[in-house]
Amino acid sequence: MKCLNDLIYLLALIALSPKILYRILMQNRYRKGWSERLGKIRRNSPDKKCIWIHAVSVGEVNATKTIIAKLKNQLPQYEIIISATTDTGIEQARKLYGSELKVFYFPFDFSFAIHRAFKRLKPDICLLMELEVWPNFTSRAHRLGVPIVVVNGRISDRSFPKYKILKAFVKPLFRKVSLFLAQDAEYADRFIALGGRKDSTVVTGSLKYDTAQITDKVEGSDKLAQQFAIGAAPLWVAGGTGPKEEKIILDVFKKLKQQEKYDSLRLAIVPRKPERFGEVADLIAKSGFELTRYSRIKSGEQNSPVKNDTVILGDTMGDLRKFYSLASVVFVGRSLVPMGGSDMMESTAMGKCTIFGPHTFNFNQTVKALLHAQGAIEVKNENKLYEMIQKCLDAPQFAKQIAAAGQNVIKQNQGATQTSITAILNLLK
Questions:
Q1: 203 with 231, same domain?
Q2: Of 269, 240, 239, 231, which Cα lies nearest the Cα of 253?
Q3: 197 shares its domain with 274
Q4: Domain of residue 136, residue span
């Protein structure tokens, strides 16, 4: 079976090679970590037992924070190591954990790379954030008797039908998973329907509620406000945006700025992907607005005053929460376009009136909870976005009510970390 998997991977690699090459050359992606992707990984403390946590990208890495803190406290005899797939995931893991944990690129699922990684790392348990059940990885762990736990598990509405088509292939893999810790009952049912064992599937809630920091103050936000001379001016922050959304946002902003009462309104756009910073900068410039890149302010390269009609581009990693903390209203991106949405918990936990589009299939459970409690606002298109931004600015009490209800949803849904840790400890015993 592993030979067949390797053949499929090889053919896929050949087919995708032009796209991969383009990203390497033009987007500066996939240039790092090749030895680790081939399984050449060394632990910091090979004499200890080992917990291997895998998180694909930034969102999954952020969701590890409370789990790792609890594991370190309750299992000091274990070394915790963490892998990620994307460059941004690796960068975020290193930012969170520094040299405290071994951070490395997840190996390709070729059998030779997986064999080499397990031989060198010798994990006692593997925790996979959300899903990421790869065939050769899962089979190798199963043969070695290493438990696999899917933590914060979910299968989106978009992915579930595809998994059902491949059920004959997926079922043997899911049977090898020791424990599915699902975000909600619907996701748990999906794991079971695809082959997960009912007695090994537990509903824990979402870890992202626990990692969302309930606060109205973020370190560095005062300096940010001073750098951009925001003061008492209303600030609209569009965070985690995707392709085609920035133009919509700029068009709405332009329409608002044509009205005298919104003359002081400021706009900050923070794209989800760093490789798009240059593209979005060009788009802002072409829209007719002046542009200020936060990277230049942050580095001291630019010291000139920032005008009211200047659009701020958040082109640094790890500073989105600073922008959110200053916002009068937040739009969470990758949701007006069919990309699944970005994390809306960050802004709602900070007590901000949060708006998103209809394409949020990656955050179904959270969206349902927020909309049910009237703790966030969903808009269908550009016109509705304009109307709702206008309403939030004109009726601050309305925006405050939405924000308070959203923050309360976050508080009420916390607790997944302890439920997950209890299940993991019971499995290790």
A1: no
A2: 269
A3: no
A4: 30-212+414-428
